[in-house]
DNA sequence: ATAATTCATATAGAATTAATATGAAATAAA
DNA sequence: TTTATTTCATATTAATTCTATATGAATTAT
């Protein structure tokens, strides 16, 4: 029952970009240094993020990444789901809309309740909120 | 981000015992048949459950298992955690009590919020509640 | 040209998952 | 007392997933 490093690193990566959202392009190398995460691993991760259109990229010298939209536009859920898939404790083949509650098993309902609770958390925290909390703490430069 | 089959089967197993909580001892073979789960795999699982004292067992012919306490006494959380460990999306080394919120990273706080939301769900559903829901649905004999 | 950087894909070791297998110990019933 | 049934204990294994590392092509500013 764990979110893998990909999902967690993705959030730290996006938060790093949000905190340093100055309009400049930030190379992945810089983020890897700050976050102490393998550069090549981060490259894989941001590739997925980039393909989803969450960031803009510029190749070559002086290139890098920046957020495609303002931090208010990104929820934790959007980012983590991109790397992890649905944040469901089980594979729920029955989509909530397709079946009545009564047609599903009681254990399936439990997993659905857990999923809903998780979604409620991650869909209501934006990068902007995390940036705000980060500055509020103000205890350590890149302790994300 | 999944609960493994052990945790899920454990819940179905305990729910099966709760539904059939007549005072008789139920062999694991019976449960395996009803739930269509490998008998040997279920044995491994109930061994852990038994060691935790959640069930009483009797060996030999006519033996089997039964709940050690009434279904009201078991929450989904107790059962699933037994097999899965903490239902936390990451390993949270900092126990909530040991550190001030401000001393932890903003991402750690997110994972903590997710954990709290999950705990809130699983700690407030008992086996008795699931038995009630099961009878309420009443659509299929062992569709757990 | 050169250095820096994204982009694309392949490879690999470690860990975890999900079982299956083997057999000993205990108990009721024949 | 034998037999069938059942829990209890532990070992093994195949498949999958995780967590990277590696190689190198394409692009761009200097």
The coarse overall form of chain A would be elongated
Which fold name corresponds to the CATH topology of the domain at 5-85 and 126-137 in chain A? Arc Repressor Mutant, subunit A
β content of chain A, as a range? 5-15%
Radius of gyration of chain A, Cα only, in angstroms? 17 Å
* Number of H- or I-type helical stretches of chain A: 6
Mean pLDDT over the full residue set of chain A? 92
The amount of helix of chain A comes to 40-55%
Q: What spatial order of strands do you see in the largest sheet of chain A?
A: 1-2
CATH architecture of the domain at 5-85 and 126-137 in chain A: Orthogonal Bundle
Which residues of chain A form runs of ≥5 with pLDDT under 50?
none
Distance between the termini of chain A: 22 Å
Which short descriptors sum up this protein?
homodimer; 144 residues; mainly alpha; Arc Repressor Mutant, subunit A; two-stranded antiparallel ribbon; 6 helices; 2 strands; 51% helix; 6% strand; elongated; DNA-binding
Structure overview:
- Two copies of one chain form a homodimer.
- In chain A, helix 1 runs antiparallel to helix 4 and helix 2 crosses helix 3.
- The model of chain A has no long low-confidence stretch (mean pLDDT 92).
- Chain A is built from six helices and two strands.
- In chain A, 51% of the residues lie in helices and 6% in strands.
- Chain A is elongated and about 60 Å long.
- At the A-B interface, helix 1, helix 5 and helix 6 of A face helix 1, helix 5 and helix 6 of B.
- Chain A binds a DNA duplex (30 and 30 nucleotides) through helix 3.
Short recap of the structure:
Chain A is mainly alpha-helical and 144 residues long. Chain A contains 6 helices and 2 strands.
């Amino acid at each position: 029952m764990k979110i893998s490093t990909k999902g967690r690193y993705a959030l730290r990566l996006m938060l790093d970009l949000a905190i340093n959202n100055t309009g400049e392009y930030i190379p992945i190398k810089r983020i890897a240094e700050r976050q102490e995460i393998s550069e090549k691993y981060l490259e894989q991760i941001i590739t997925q993020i980039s393909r989803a259109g969450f960031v803009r990229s510029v190749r070559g010298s002086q290139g890098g990444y920046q957020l495609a939209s303002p931090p208010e536009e990104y929820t934790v859920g959007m980012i983590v789901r991109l790397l992890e898939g649905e944040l469901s404790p089980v594979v729920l083949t029955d989509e909530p809309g397709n079946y009545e509650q009564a047609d599903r098993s009681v254990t399936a309902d439990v997993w659905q309740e857990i999923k809903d609770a998780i979604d409620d958390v991650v869909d209501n925290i934006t990068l902007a909120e995390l940036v705000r909390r980060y500055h509020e703490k103000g205890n350590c430069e890149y302790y994300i």
